[in-house]
Amino acid sequence: MRLVRIVFLAMLSIVVVTRIARAQTVAPGPVAERDWHTTVYPILAWVPLDIRIETNVPPTNEGGSGGGGESAQIVDSRFDGAFFGGIAASNGAWRIEGYGLWASFGGDRLERPSLTVDLDLIYGSAKFGRRVAPDFFVTAGVRRLALDYDVTLGDLPRFARKPGVWDPIVGIGWHRVSPKVEWHATFDGGGFGVGADVDLGASVSVDWKPISHFGLTAGYNMLYLKVTDSVASRDLILKLSAHGPTAGFGLYF
Question: In angstroms, how far apart are the furthest CA atoms of the chain?
Fold first, then answer.
């Protein structure tokens, strides 16, 4: 159900942003399809307001005892920090994007079973899009996902690993650009069991460009991941969901 809510909120956010932009944007001038325009976001801060981490630790088979596995969700979440940046280029008909993210999460649960999770997430994505309607693009690309996790659940042995996976991703994007204001909304999903089991991301943002080649940006990002990591024929499952506002600045060329 939580996955359905995330997808629904992502699509609703895109619809709301497009309607607001249409109401407030005065017919932007035409963009020449042969002129490429590039935006660089050197610093973007993300502050998740809601973080949920759920883990399913496999049973142990040490000494032939076959101890049972357990699953639990953190109660007290912790956000240590996040930073991401990116670059986008478009000539009106085609769009290329690349983004990188580092984020550190954690949390605890004191009730039985007790749970302590420390998780560092690093991912980078590259997408290529084609315009299919005014301001709308279909996209496809790849995302590199690297996790550094440390999980202690109940009396089970501590799990600490640094797995990395490649995820194919497909999605949609809505981008309206004018000389002073830009509106952006994206949703993409991937994994499909190739890398992560599920890899979903969504964002909405508005860029205000008060002077030439410089602007401020603010928006909202959502992230959902489900990853299965196999160790010695045992599968540990991690689920992470986080969403919150973003802010930073951009350079426009």
Answer: 72
Mean pLDDT for the chain?
Answer: 82
Contact 167, 193 (CB under 8 A): no
- Tokens 């007790």 correspond to 114
Tens-digit pLDDT profile for residues 94-143 = 999 999 999 888 888 777 667 788 889 998 999 999 999 999 999 999 99
For the chain, how far is it from start to end, CA to CA, in angstroms? 43
pTM over 0.85: no
Contact 149, 117 (CB under 8 A): yes
Q: How many CA atoms lie within 13 A of 19 on its CB side?
A: 6
Question: How far is the C-alpha of 76 from the C-alpha of 239, rounded, in Å?
Answer: 16
CATH 3.30.420 applies to domain 2-26+37-88+102-252: no
Residues 34-77: pLDDT tens digits? 689 999 999 899 988 888 888 876 665 544 444 455 666 766 77
pLDDT on residue 79: 81
Instruction: Note the Cα 109 to chain centre separation in Å.
Output: 25
Coil/strand/helix, residue 202: strand
User: What is the Cα–Cα distance from 252 to 148, expressed in whole angstroms?
Assistant: 34
Residues 6 or more apart from 245 whose CB is under 8 A from it? 46, 47, 49, 218, 219, 220, 221
